[in-house]
Design goal:
Elements: E1 2-11, E2 17-26, E3 29-34, H1 41-49, E4 56-62, E5 66-69, H2 81-85, H3 88-98, H4 104-110, H5 116-126, H6 143-156, E6 161-165, H7 173-184, E7 189-193, H8 197-200, E8 205-210, E9 213-218, H9 221-274, H10 278-316, E10 337-346, E11 350-358, E12 362-367, H11 373-381, E13 388-393, E14 397-401, H12 414-421, H13 427-436, H14 453-465, E15 471-477, H15 485-497, E16 501-505, H16 509-514, E17 519-523
Parallel strand pairs: 3-7, 3-8, 5-6, 6-7, 12-16, 12-17, 14-15, 15-16
Antiparallel strand pairs: 1-2, 1-4, 8-9, 10-11, 10-13
Helix pairs in contact: 3-4, 5-6, 9-10, 12-13, 12-14, 14-15
Keywords: ATP-binding, Nucleotide-binding, Repeat
Domain ABC transporter: 3-236, 325-524
Pfam families: ABC_tran
Length: 527
């Protein structure tokens, strides 16, 4: 069982290339596929699944059937659970036979799958959907339930090649653990696109789609991170060595020029003092100049070579993608109360909930899907009013970053959005701050509507964290959803510099560990 791509190329209808002449082999086992947003990860899965035709080359999947779970699953609609699983016809035939209808076509539909209902219910139960009936409509399921149902639909027919695109999005902790258990037992060729580092650490190998090539690294994501860190450190050492060489050659070139100038001056005086004929003196002068020129050219050549080596070393060193910024205006004195809620109740979501947020603590809201985490964030931020209970906000601006990242004006540039958030900030300082969020030069003047998910997150963070007044309480709802791994790291860097308090909803345990959570509040639909 394997996936083989041979000279694979794909371009969009407007001739925009995604990748060209891609060659790769994904063997049996578990492979995690990572890349920057927009590199073509989801497109590659669709090509492998046969949902898109390549513009060149081809793909061969050996071993049998292919299952594919897309990232953008429909969250509404009328199909039943049985229809999503692809068993509606067999269940209908089974019911007809049980009611006494012995028509031959019913037996033809069932074939040998007489335990179809038991298999369906067992698989649903395994993925945490045991209480979901086979006649339940898709539109009544939560986002996490929809993802789990989509996975069940792909697993039901026992594919030998399984393609999953961000399968942990919208899954709570318990659902993620069930997913891990199912995938650990999958015996075929598994290819997963994910930014979930916990899931990627369960892989046998990591495939990286970058610069138009697919490279495969043996080991899990932690091993890949260590290998890339070692490689990056080696490149940085090469750059430092090349910089030192350039400085040394510059110094030696300058010293050679100074020595040449001194020798020329001394020779000129000596010739004048010697009283030699002009013709002979001129010949000696030209000979000295030629000799000095050769020496100077030698140093210049060495200098040019050193500069070329530095340029090449810098070219191979990726641009620093870390957000490093100081945010003193967001500081909150330790113990200062920013929010108090007593006896909060929202109908059908939670009741009798008490919460106090003090600076500069970092709180993680955890719990099952539908337990009220987003609702509580909206209460803290003032977007919702509780049905019962008391709320006190005791000063300090509160900023809420929803999953949609919809705080910015799409028609304005990044710089113009920051100008709206911080109107008294001088233009030069505004550009300096955007540069610290990796919007350098013309990038700061890009309209928000053309930004990728990760770029939009950075722009939103810049406008929120540099706002006037700066927020002292930050609310974040699943901030890592749909971000590539570089963007997740940038978010962690920005939150590391933030000096206020924040409350974050996330099922990404690695992310929560990286941002230094002080306290966890587990929601359970009651309190």
């Amino acid at each position: 069982m394997s996936i083989v791509g041979s000279h694979l190329s794909f371009s969009w209808p407007d001739d925009t290339p995604v990748f060209q002449d891609l060659n790769f082999t994904v063997p049996a086992g578990r492979t995690g596929l990572v890349a920057a947003n927009g590199a073509g990860k989801s497109t590659l899965l669709k090509l492998i699944a046969g949902l898109l035709p390549p513009t060149g080359g081809g793909i061969i999947t050996t071993g049998g059937t292919v299952g594919y779970l897309p990232q953008d699953l429909p969250l509404t609609g009328e199909p039943s659970v049985a229809e999503i699983l692809g068993v509606q016809g067999r269940l209908h035939a089974l019911r007809a036979i049980e009611s006494g209808d012995a028509a031959e076509e019913h037996f033809a539909v069932i074939g040998t799958d007489w335990d179809v209902e038991e298999r369906s219910r067992a698989l649903l139960d395994r993925l945490g959907l045991g209480e979901v009936g086979l006649d339940r409509r898709l539109g009544t399921l939560s986002g996490g339930q929809t993802v789990s149902l989509g996975l069940a639909a792909q697993l039901f027919d026992r594919p030998e090649v399984l393609l999953l695109d961000e399968p942990t999005n919208n899954l709570d902790r318990a659902a993620r653990q069930r997913l891990h258990a199912v995938l650990d037992e999958f015996a075929g060729c598994l290819l997963i696109v994910s930014h979930d580092r916990e899931l990627l650490d369960r892989m046998d190998r990591i495939a990286v789609l970058e610069h138009g090539a697919l490279s495969v690294f043996g080991g899990n994501f932690a091993a890949y991170e260590e290998a890339t860190r070692t490689e990056r450190e080696a490149r940085e050492r090469t750059v430092r060595s090349a910089e030192a060489e350039v400085k040394r050659e510059k110094r030696e070139l300058q010293q050679a020029r100074e020595r040449s100038a001194r020798r020329a001056s001394t020779a000129k005086r000596n010739l004048a003092d010697a009283g030699l004929p002009k013709l002979f003196a001129g010949t000696m002068k030209r000979s000295a100049e030629v000799s000095a020129g050769r020496a100077g050219q030698t140093h210049a050549n060495r200098m040019a070579g050193a500069q070329a080596r530095l340029d090449e070393a810098e070219r191979q060193t990726r641009e620093d993608d870390r957000i490093v910024i100081d945010l003193p205006d967001t500081a909150v004195p330790a113990g200062r109360t920013l929010f108090e809620g007593d006896g909060l109740r929202v109908r059908d979501v939670f009741r009798d909930l008490d919460l106090t947020v003090r600076g500069p603590e970092r709180i993680a809201l955890t719990g099952a899907n539908g337990s009220g985490k987003t609702t509580l964030l909206r209460l803290i931020g003032g977007d919702l009013t509780p049905d019962a209970g008391q709320i006190r906000r005791t000063g300090g601006r509160i900023a809420y970053l929803s999953q949609r990242l919809d705080l910015l004006d799409d028609d304005l540039s990044v710089a113009e959005n920051l100008a709206r958030s911080a109107p008294t900030l001088p233009d030069r300082e505004r550009m300096n701050r955007l540069a610290r969020f990796l919007f350098r030069g013309d990038q700061a003047h890009l309209p928000v509507r053309v930004l990728s998910g990760g770029e939009r997150l950075r722009a939103t963070l810049a406008c929120v964290l540099c706002a006037e007044p700066a927020p002292q309480l930050l609310l974040l709802d699943e901030p890592t959803n749909n971000l590539d791994l570089v963007s997740v790291g940038q978010l962690e860097s920005a939150l590391g510099a933030y000096r206020g308090a924040f409350v974050v909803v996330s099922h990404d345990e690695r992310f929560l560990a990286e941002i230094g959570i002080d306290r966890r509040l587990t929601m359970d639909n009651r309190s």
